[in-house]
């Protein structure tokens, strides 16, 4: 039976809802696909469920093609396994935690590595049982600080999460590739534009990891790519360290007065006014080393300070800093932090080998042996010039947290990087043995020895993809779904008052359904054609048929929602044209 | 593609798991359908998911036939709507409550009346929009005090919950009947034995309500039925009040000593030894009125006492008491309670018109005007005889909490009741206007006046039905699924070592799948036929085909799992016999 607008649970909205910022969110609300139940928590209306079911069907088919088997885990999970892996704490405020009536701790699962590991441990014990790849399509929970853009960043959302279990690294690589291939097929079938970028494995632990990003100006992820094919999430870009320089022969470090240099620009101006460089060229911001003080908050809530020396021509990238200091949260040190540390002379903070008491000192990868810097002298209104790494100061390690800029060289030498924004729609991880070790998942190998299983984890944001598709497929009048996920194959508008129009539309709908097509039929008798056309454009089924005045000549209009093209065809041939 | 046991994520267990009490639970664990993740919280393995998908498909088809439209609500819901209807508190410890990072209160929804009401209010505004019936199939959460018997009483479970919205009572009755009819079709198609019984509307509020119970000795619900067709949940049985008796001419009340009468039996014996009845017959327990002190705990946690006078030949039924005093929890008063109320003379508590301070006094419906009782005299070692209701004492109301016994007359005069146990598998409610009023769901009627919508609520325990089916369909060797929900249509065992056996089995599987049948194929080459047969019996697909030695004669064995019948048929005719 067609979906009839005369009784479909739907109310389209002419005005943009106040709660929505981005177009996909506005249109999904206006066209009656979803409704907000709480911040970042959405209800699915019938049209939305139809789209969701189509996405899930494609995901299921390609998971089966990749040999993955479907299971279904609870969302409500006990604390213990997450305690063992440390994630009960590491997730910090992002985890929804609760207690049952017996005061036992539970969580709403943000992801299921622990549970899949334990399930395989429960059922399997031998190398003969492996490899196995399991997945689920399930509601996930993350208490996002800033739920955003409707389905793009929700607090309750649907993910397909798959996990592979192998006896050795070769097996893991094969499993990873099989999922990666399946993802390419899924996104291609869904009609989602995507790029695969190197990712930072971050809090998940593990070795190799790639993200599937859908390029979009509203994306929260920045990624880079080079003409030679390098592509990475900005968090994963590793700045190549330049070659060390000889220390011998470098000018000695000299402290200069530097009052009134609140910015790098003023410092560089002062340097060029007062101090000549040995090589004759001008000083630039890249010759300065600014020492940034960051405050880290551990998942347990402990706050501590670190210093990082970065070239003065670059800002710290907040996301790269988060990745570098994971699982801590990172922010700029506050006035309060500085007040507790009078040894940090604001505006004149300099490198400190070994750090200040309780404050470690790290440097950017560009700070290699023999590089000379203008930097703070740890004394009010003083900077030191020609301060050479490896001679005058050292650091506790490298932290690669400076911004990546368009034109920077790709780490693999494949040319200058360009920057773009994208939305993460999939993520594949080679987890390795982290979870299997923590939860003791071992099997007997061919020689009867217990070996730890190696794992991969593979996620797709099912509900997020719907937002991505809506964002990439709309115009000012409404949504324009790709056929793969459209809530129906054909949308028939019965436009007019005569009964025979409705009869013809019903007949056409029945014929299309008999041919296996799904149909939405606007059979509302007291609604004007103008309103019906607006609703058809808003709802966004790509193929629209108008049964109206043309029927007098035995014709209907075929309306291509995407191109806007409308043309009359004979009623008899309409069916064949549509199928 | 068939499900192949050579790589299916499955491990059958020979031993009963310690965690399981009832057969269905043991077998669902042993046969690899589910695994426990936490008390009352289960993981679905591939075979279990296949059964669940079949149940859900039948439910969806019949909901569509009944004109209901599918939506999907979050499980994570904000407190506010539940606060408005009072259920945030009324649910007591049964509700999983949590806070997000901003300390806002949330709950995991046990049922969605509030949210459906608000959704219809959000979208609809006119009588023209009604009637509408919406449903979802969704994970529900209840923090049961005693999760039990696997899927039978879980804390995370799947329900189909539907809600109807009508402008008037006639519409509600039609919607109720449509859902009730759909339930009959669903349970018939699933092959679940059921009875429809009158139910206590209880904490849900509302007027009419019926339960679908599946008769089972392990059921937690007791229900009654009469030869004349009366059927009710024991909580819903309304004891008919007998006719009042004349007070005139009754003997005066007399207080007698009654030391050493700790039980009703000893009291009756003492009465018969010492006091002759005017009518000459012996005293029986039914002539005594015992005054039971109950402690109620309100959802807010407030404890208070009540007294109820019930005939001495009947015990208080805990479930009927819970229903009568809902939403309070009910237990017998403790020693501590009595210690705080020295006016309650234990063993000799008598009726107290108006109750004791802060303790209301209720009576059983059989206590009508003119009935005379032996009852406590509120004085140590004293009982009063011929204590007549309406003359010597009165009550604050009726509480029908005494046990219902086999042989009791049906309230509608349709004969003596018999008692049986059942498992609640569905529940239909005429909610009326309780939720619409609380949440202000009004629409304009034909005259442009705002009227409050009337609602129904209709639930089916999807995951519970799987346990019910397993409980009703098994033998000592394993499960025996009805065809409607079997994880596959046909189960093929390749029994033997010869390669040609496996080839023949694969060919048969492919042919069956080409005909639209789903197949599980036991293609494990290093497993003995005996183990394969045991697994086949445990897993419980009703139609089994054995490809084995018979192939030498061109034959396979068809094995009916339910009857146990095995017979050889020619390979050529096997396909036709199975289809």
Description:
The structure is a homodimer of 579-residue chains. By secondary structure, chain A is α+β, with helices and mostly antiparallel strands. In chain A, helix 12 (499-514) links the parallel strand 27 and strand 28. Chain A contains 14 helices and 31 strands. Chain A folds into 3 domains: 50-75 and 110-237 and 419-470, BirA Bifunctional Protein, domain 2 (2-Layer Sandwich), CATH 3.30.930.10; 254-388, YbaK/aminoacyl-tRNA synthetase-associated domain (YbaK protein, Alpha-Beta Complex); 488-578, Anticodon-binding domain (Rossmann fold, 3-Layer(aba) Sandwich). Chain A starts with a strand and ends with a helix. In chain A, helix 1 crosses helix 11, helix 2 runs antiparallel to helix 6 and helix 2 crosses helix 11 (462-472). At the A-B interface, strand 2, strand 3, helix 2, strand 4 and strand 5 of A face strand 2, strand 3, helix 2, strand 4 and strand 5 of B.
Topology:
The structure is a homodimer of 579-residue chains.
Chain A: E1 3-4, H1 23-30, E2 34-38, E3 41-44, H2 46-65, E4 69-70, E5 76-78, H3 79-85, H4 87-90, E6 96-99, E7 105-108, H5 113-123, E8 132-141, E9 156-166, H6 169-190, E10 195-198, E11 209-215, E12 221-225, E13 231-233, E14 254-257, H7 264-274, E15 288-297, E16 303-311, H8 318-324, E17 329-332, H9 335-340, E18 360-363, E19 372-376, E20 382-388, E21 418-432, H10 434-438, E22 442-444, E23 450-452, E24 454-461, H11 462-472, E25 474-475, E26 478-479, E27 490-494, H12 499-514, E28 519-522, H13 529-539, E29 543-547, E30 555-560, E31 566-570, H14 571-578
Parallel strand pairs in A: 1-28, 4-8, 15-19, 16-18, 27-28, 27-29
Antiparallel strand pairs in A: 2-3, 5-7, 6-7, 8-9, 9-24, 10-11, 11-21, 12-13, 12-21, 14-20, 15-16, 15-17, 19-20, 21-24, 22-23, 25-26, 29-30, 30-31
């Amino acid at each position: 039976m067609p979906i009839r607008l005369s009784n479909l649970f739907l109310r389209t909205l002419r005005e943009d809802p106040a709660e929505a910022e981005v177009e996909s969110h506005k249109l999904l609300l206006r066209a009656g696909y979803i409704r907000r139940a709480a911040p970042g928590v959405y209800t699915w209306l019938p049209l939305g469920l139809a789209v969701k079911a189509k996405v899930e069907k494609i995901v299921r088919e390609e998971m089966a093609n990749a040999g993955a088997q479907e299971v279904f885990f609870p969302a409500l999970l006990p604390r213990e396994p997450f305690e063992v892996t440390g994630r009960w704490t590491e997730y910090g405020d992002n985890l929804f935690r609760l207690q049952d009536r017996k005061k036992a701790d539970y969580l709403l699962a943000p992801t299921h590595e622990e549970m899949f590991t334990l399930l395989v441990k429960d059922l399997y014990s031998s190398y003969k049982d492996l490899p196995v790849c399991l997945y689920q399509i399930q509601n996930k929970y993350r208490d996002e600080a800033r739920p955003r853009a409707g389905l793009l960043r929700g607090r309750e959302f649907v993910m397909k999460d798959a996990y592979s279990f192998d006896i050795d690294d070769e097996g893991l690589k094969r499993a990873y590739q099989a999922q990666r291939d399946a993802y390419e097929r899924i996104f291609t079938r869904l009609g989602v534009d995507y790029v695969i970028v190197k990712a930072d494995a971050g809090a998940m632990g593990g070795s190799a990891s790639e993200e599937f990003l859908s390029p979009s100006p509203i994306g929260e992820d920045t990624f880079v790519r080079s003409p030679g094919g390098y592509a990475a999430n900005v968090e994963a870009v590793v700045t190549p360290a330049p070659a060390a320089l000889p220390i011998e022969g470098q000018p000695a470090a000299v402290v200069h007065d530097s009052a009134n240099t609140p910015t790098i620009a003023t410092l560089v101006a002062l340097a060029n006014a007062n101090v000549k460089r040995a090589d004759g060229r001008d000083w630039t911001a890249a010759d300065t080393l600014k020492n940034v003080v960051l405050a880290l908050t551990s998942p347990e809530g402990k706050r501590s300070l670190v210093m990082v020396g970065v070239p003065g021509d670059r800002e710290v990238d907040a996301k790269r800093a988060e990745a570098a200091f994971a699982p801590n949260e990172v922010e700029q040190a506050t006035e309060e932090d500085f007040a507790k540390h009078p040894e940090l002379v604001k505006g004149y903070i300099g490198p400190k080998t070994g750090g200040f008491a309780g404050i470690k000192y790290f440097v950017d990868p560009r700070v290699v042996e023999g590089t000379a810097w203008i930097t703070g002298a740890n004394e009010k209104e003083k900077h030191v010039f020609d301060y050479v790494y490896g001679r005058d100061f050292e650091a506790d390690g490298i932290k690669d947290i400076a911004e990546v800029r368009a034109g920077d060289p790709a780490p693999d030498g494949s040319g200058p990087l360009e920057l773009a924004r994208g939305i993460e729609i999939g993520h594949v991880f080679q987890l390795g043995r982290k979870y299997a070790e923590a939860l003791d998942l071992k099997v007997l190998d061919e020689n009867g020895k217990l070996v730890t299983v190696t794992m991969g984890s593979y996620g797709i944001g099912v509900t997020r993809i719907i937002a991505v598709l809506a964002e990439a497929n709309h115009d000012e009048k409404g949504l324009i779904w790709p056929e793969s996920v459209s809530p129906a194959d054909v949308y028939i508008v019965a436009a007019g008052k005569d009964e025979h129009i409705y009869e013809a539309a019903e007949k056409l709908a029945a014929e299309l359904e008999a041919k296996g097509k799904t149909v939405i039929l606007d059979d509302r008798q007291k609604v004007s054609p103008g309103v019906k056309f607006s609703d058809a454009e808003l709802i966004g089924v790509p193929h629209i048929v108008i049964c109206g005045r043309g029927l007098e000549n035995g014709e209907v209009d075929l309306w291509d929602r995407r191109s806007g093209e409308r043309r009359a065809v004979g009623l008899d041939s309409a069916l064949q044209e549509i199928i």
